[in-house]
Design brief:
Elements lengths: L27 H8 L5 E5 L5 H9 L3 E6 L2 H9 L4 E3 L13 E7 L8 H11 E7 L6 H10 L23 H11 L2 E9 L4 H9 L1 H4 L2 E8 L3
Length: about 220
């Protein structure tokens, strides 16, 4: 699907225009909100249009702050009365150690140049970290590569391999390995944006790296 755009060459999420879509309601927002303690301070990295921050503010009484590089996204956040700063999350973050209770990176870690630097910086500035991403090892991607011999596009949300900022495709197993390599973190909880179909739900619990498309990881800085 091309989201109503006839020319696929015009469909490019590396320069997404948030002025056309100032509100969003993604299925993982509810899971992320549940993982955050009421009244906590939260840094939303690559916060987009600010819809997640607004939800955390209204439903969890969270003290939210965002960081984003898109001018249209920043304008959308500020129109909602949210605090947001312009910057690149793919670099050392301009925040003090332990500045936040939570650092959130929602479906963006696969779009940065240095995922390990981002996760290390999230660990530095926040006691807990929440990370979500599309699982590239999802069974539909495996089948597309095996049968069609083409770069899988399921999980690219309507984009093509050449018109997406997804430069570090990863799986659930890859992320667990990254957590170990970065060190000083432990996984507190893993949840998934899952299907209501009973069989898919069962397979997703048994084989998440194959049958879960969007994992939500709650991490905590360890005291090792």
């Amino acid at each position: 699907m091309r989201s109503g755009i006839d020319n696929p060459l015009e469909n490019d999420n590396r320069a997404y225009d948030y002025s056309r879509h100032t509100e969003s309601d993604r299925p993982e927002y509810g899971i992320i909100a549940r993982m955050i303690q009421p009244g906590a301070s939260v840094l939303d990295l690559a916060c987009g249009d600010g819809s997640l921050m607004l939800r955390l503010q209204t439903t969890r009484n969270a003290r939210v702050q965002g960081m984003e590089r898109s001018p249209t996204a920043i304008a959308s956040c500020r129109s909602k009365g949210l605090e947001v700063s312009r910057g690149d999350i793919d670099a050392p973050l301009p925040y003090a150690d332990n500045a936040f209770d939570y650092a959130v990176c929602n479906v963006t870690i696969q779009m940065v140049m240095y995922p390990e630097v981002l996760l290390r910086e999230m660990k530095r500035v926040a006691v807990r970290q929440i990370v979500t991403f599309p699982n590239f090892a999802f069974y539909r991607n495996r089948l597309e590569l095996l049968i069609r011999g083409r770069m899988p596009t399921y999980g690219l949300f309507g984009y093509q391999w050449y018109s997406t900022g997804h430069i570090h495709q990863l799986s659930i197993r890859d992320f667990r390995s990254l957590v170990r390599d970065v060190g000083g973190l432990r996984i507190l909880e893993t949840d998934f944006v899952g299907s209501m179909h009973p069989l898919k739900g069962l397979l997703g619990r048994w084989f998440p790296n194959v049958f879960q498309l969007l994992p939500v990881f709650l991490l905590e800085r360890s005291h090792e």
